[in-house]
Amino acid sequence: WVKSFLEYSHKIGSNFLLCQGPGGNTSFKVDNKIFIKKSGFHLKDSKNKNIFEEVDLKKIQNHYKTTKSKKYSNSLSIETPLHVLLNSNYVFHYHSLASVLLSLIFDKEYLNKFLVKNELIPISYMRPGLKLANEIVKMNQDFQRGYYFLYNHGVVLEGNNLTKIYKDILRIEKIFGKLIDYQLLKKPLKKYLKAI
Predict the structure, then answer these.
(1) Among 13, 92, 101, 193, whose Cα sits 20 to 30 Å from the Cα of 120?
(2) Hey, how many other C-beta atoms are within 10 angstroms of the C-beta on 151?
(3) What is the pTM of this model?
(4) What is the pLDDT of residues 83-96, one digit of tens each?
(5) Between the CA of residue 58 and those of 36, 61, 140, 194, what are the distances in Å?
(6) Residue 151's closest CA among 180, 175, 128, 173?
């Protein structure tokens, strides 16, 4: 399963529509350890570089539950609390361009209904870190779902089945694509570029 985890992390990181530069992160938990992508590294390098850091799960959980410190370690992303506080074995967070576009162009009330209908929990924008992680944990208790739409930020999926998570990432992006006419978005850009 480690090989599959690295493969799926690589695939997500290699897709510009899902991850840009070092953005996005994945993690897995096993034997009271959490392996999480280190800050500044690219998910697309999952298979050929050592981009994941091993951390004692209980220690880091206790850190975020008992302190208000934003970071456990400077080598870890500010989004680490999200991975630590969610209970599932696998957490995939990616910066879907489609999700950002939807956040910008659709009425929030309408979009929230659409998201809930498609089993995504809408999370209003807040800066990445402990506050966001706690909000997601709280919302999950209310909705009992493991998929989250972060306004102007991306998408988070958690679960215990790697293949299902990856397939659902593709399914969710396909659903988003039904609301966005990418060809229409390209037309003004082409017209502008020709004018330069």
Answers:
(1) 13
(2) 19
(3) 0.90
(4) 999 999 999 999 99
(5) 14, 5, 21, 57
(6) 128
